[in-house]
Amino acid sequence: MRHARTLQLLVLAAALATTDSVPSAAAQPAGADHLERMTATVRAVDLEHRSLDLVTGVGYALRIRRVEAPAGLTVDDRGARLPLAAVTAGCIVRVECHRSAAGMVASTLELLERPAQAPKP
Amino acid sequence: MKAAGSALIILSTLNALGSASCPPAAKLGNPLPGLTADELSRFEKGREVFERRFTPETGLGPLFNADACGECHEEPLAGGSGDEVEVHVGSFGAALLAGGSGGEVDARVGSSGASGSCDLLVEEGGPVIQQQATPALQAALGIEREPLPASGARAARSTPDIFGFGLLDAVPERAILALADPEDRNRDGISGRPNRFPDGRLGRFGRKAFVPTLREFNAGALVIEQGVTNPAVPSEESIGGKAIPAGVDPVREPELSEEETRLLDDFVRFLAPPAPLPLDREGARGSVIFGTIGCGSCHVASLATGNHPVAALRYQRVEAYTDLLLHDMGAERADICFGLASPSEFRTEPLMGLRFMTAFLHDGKAKSIEEAIDLHGGEAAAARKRFQRLAPPARAAVLRFLGSL
C-alpha cells in the first residue's frame, strides 16, 4: 500500500512536473491563442450550469477559478470518456481553456486523480 | 521508520565526532558557501528587497500583515524568526458537494460532515488573515483588518526562521516520499504522510507542508503578508471574499517586477543554514539519546539535496532534523486543516536554528525547548514519554544537544 501510494505520487508528480517558473495564481498562459492550462483541485461542480470551481494559486495565495464546460465536453479519465458528473469535489483535474465574454471555457478536461482518502479529524 | 532511526543514530554519532563531510559552515545570515560571484551579487540585491519597507505608494496592502519580509523575519537578523503571530483559518469536514439535482453549488454539511474535506475558505478571503489595512482602505470601509470568516476554525502561527530553506527546497521529492509510511506498516507508531498542493504536487513548506516550492512560497507570501502583487500572483487578496473598493490601491499590478521577485527569492534560497555549535561530551551523548528515544523518527537528522542548477545547493547534506512530512501531534494541538493535513497533523518542524528561537511549536505557545517537548502528543507521545522518563542528566544532555542546533 505504501509503495503503491508512493508510486502513485511519483507518477502524478512527474506528470505535473514544472520547470523553473512559478505557476501563476491566474494560471499559465499557453500561447498566443490565449489558451490557458491549469491543474487544480475541484471545489465544486454545477451540473445544471455545467461549470466547475477550481482551487488554484501560488503558495498561500489561493484563488477560485470558475470554468464553463460546454455541452458535449467529456472528461478524459486515462483515455476513457466520461460525463461531467464523473468529476466531484476533491478531484484533481487538468483543464485547457480559453477566455470568452462569459468567462473561462474549457476545451479539454482531464481527470488526474480522484479525492484522496479523508484524513481523520 | 526503523531504518531512518538507525540512520539517525549513525549520523548523530558522526556529527558528534565532528564529521568532515559537511560543507564549511557559514556565519549566521551569510550566504551559502560556494556561491558564484553572480549568485552572491543576487543574494545581496535580494536582501535589499527582503528588507525593503513597502508603503501604499510602492505596493503595500491594501490588506497586509507587515510592510517588509524583514519586519517579521528579523531575529537575530534578516531571515531569522520573529515575535509576530498570525491568524490562519480553515474549515474541516465541510463537504463541498457536486451540483446535484438542484444544481446548487458549494452546499455544505457543516463541521460534522463526514467527507473529511478541508475548506481553506478561499471564497471568504483565504486561509491567512491580514491584520492590518492601509489608511485608504480604512477610510473606504471602516475596517482596520480583514474580517474573520463567520465559520471555521482559527489557528495561531508564529514566525519561523528561514535559514537553509533553499537546501530543503532542493531535496528531491523521492527522498521525502521514501520516508513516508502513511499506513504505519512497520508498526513503530510513526506514520509520516505527504501533503499535496491543490494541483497535486507534493508540499513541503509551511507548518502543514502545503506549498511545493520555496519560490512559490515567497511569491505567495509577498501578496498575503504584504499585499505586494508580483508576476506569479498578479491579483490582490480579497477582503473577506469581497472585491477591493476602487481607488484604495494606487499601484498598478504587478507591484513588484519579475526581476525583483527573483532577487528576493535568491536571497532566501541562498541563506545558509545555521552551523550547529560544537558538541561537548554531554551534547554528543544527548544527540545519541535523541535518536534512541525516537525523536529522530520524525526529526530525521539529515536530508540530502539532489542535482540542482546552483552548485552550492547540489548534492549537499542539510542537518535539518525534519522529514518534511505530516505527523499527528495529538488532539490537544489540533487547530485547522490545510490541504490533506487534518487539524492535528503538522509537518515535522525543522530544528536547525533552534537555539535562536525564543518561542516554540507552530503557535509559539511553548516558551522553552523542554516545554515544547512536553506538548508533543499523538505520534510523538511515546518519544515524549521516553524523554520525560530519562534520568535528569540524560534529559539535560538531550536539551544540551538541542540547544546546539
Number of helices of chain B: 12
State the oligomer. heterodimer
Overall helicity of chain A: 10-25%
What is the helix tally of chain A? 1
Shape of chain A: globular
Query: How much beta of chain A, percentage-wise?
Result: over 45%
End-to-end separation of chain A? 22 Å
Describe the structure.
The complex is a heterodimer of chains A (121) and B (405). Chain A is mainly beta and 121 residues long. Chain A contains one helix and eight strands; from the N terminus they run αββββββββ. In chain A, strand 3 (51-58) and strand 4 (61-68) form a beta hairpin. Chain A starts with a helix and ends in an 8-residue tail after the last strand. By secondary structure, chain B is an alpha+beta fold. Helices cover 28% and strands 9% of the residues of chain B. Chain B is built from twelve helices and ten strands. Chain B has helices at residues 2-16, 37-51, 69-72, 135-141, 165-169, 173-177, 214-226, 258-270, 281-292, 369-374, 381-389, 392-402, and strands at residues 63-64, 82-92, 118-119, 128-129, 132-133, 153-159, 303-304, 317-318, 326-328, 345-347. In chain B, strands 2, 3, 4 and 6 form a four-stranded antiparallel beta sheet that branches. In chain B, strands 1-5 form a two-stranded antiparallel ribbon. Chain B starts with a helix and ends with a helix. Chains A and B meet through helix 1, strand 2, strand 3 and strand 4 of A and helix 6 and helix 7 of B.
